[in-house]
Design a protein that fits this description.
By secondary structure, the chain is mostly helical. It contains 6 helices and 2 strands.
Length: about 230
């Protein structure tokens, strides 16, 4: 899906078309926009922060949509309030704890460290490789999710067909509806679990990457200090 987004920052604004989900790291996307729009180097930090906020906003919207779809799948079969409360509880328990707990000061420190390393040129290739590796891991997990849901759907279809053949049409409408409801609950629960699992992976990657960048900058500055003292 292609969206046109306007990013406003201290010194102006830029409009860009972005393909979602993004196939590259946010830093790479920021670099491409800077080149296309001929922005000044001092505007990079503002644009990167605006991009991070935009991607996070879109991710939260997608998670909300998927969770609502999971609930609606159950509701379309039965309006039982117990089922509604059950899925709301499952989603909240599995996803709420994965919100961004880093403060603005941490983000500012990371942004500063990141751009110092980028402009130094020392670790740029390594940083891009790590970011691409993280993106690859997320894509793989999304594929695993899709494969599991597809496998579950086939298993449910086979199970239903087997029961229908065994009972030779003697199943009542209520029994068939109960089976359908059970299958939909399984699908919904699986979807919610994968939403949480993918969010957890992304948060883990984000923390690991921040820690790694900060340590990398410390080592770089320590090396410069030692060299200057010789």
């Amino acid at each position: 899906m292609t969206v046109v987004a306007e990013f406003k920052y201290k010194n102006g604004a830029v409009t860009a078309s972005i393909e979602l989900p993004i196939s590259e790291s946010i830093s790479e996307l920021s670099h491409h926009i800077i080149e296309e729009e001929n922005l000044q180097p001092y505007e990079e930090d503002d644009l990167l922060n605006a991009l991070e906020d935009f991607i996070q906003f879109k991710k939260e919207n997608l998670n909300d949509k998927l969770s609502n779809e999971a609930l609606n799948l159950t509701l379309c079969i039965n309006n039982d309030e117990d089922i509604i409360r059950y899925w709301e509880k499952q989603f909240k328990e599995e996803t709420v704890s994965y919100g961004d707990k880093s403060g603005s000061s941490d983000s500012e420190l990371f942004s500063t460290a990141y751009h110092k390393l980028v402009h130094s040129g020392i670790a740029l290739d390594t940083m891009l490789q790590v970011e691409q590796s993280y993106a690859h891991d997320v894509v793989n997990m999304i594929q695993q999710r899709d494969d599991q849901i597809e496998k579950l759907t086939k298993q449910q279809e086979e199970s239903l067909n087997k029961k229908l053949e065994t009972h030779q049409g003697s199943l009542s409408s209520e029994e068939i509806n109960n089976l359908d409801q059970m299958y939909i609950e399984q699908q919904s629960f699986t979807l919610v679990k994968w939403i949480s699992k993918i969010d957890t992976l992304k948060e883990t990657q984000r923390r690991e990457y921040r820690d790694w960048v900060m340590k990398l900058l410390e080592e770089h500055q320590r090396t410069i200090t030692l060299q200057s003292s010789l």
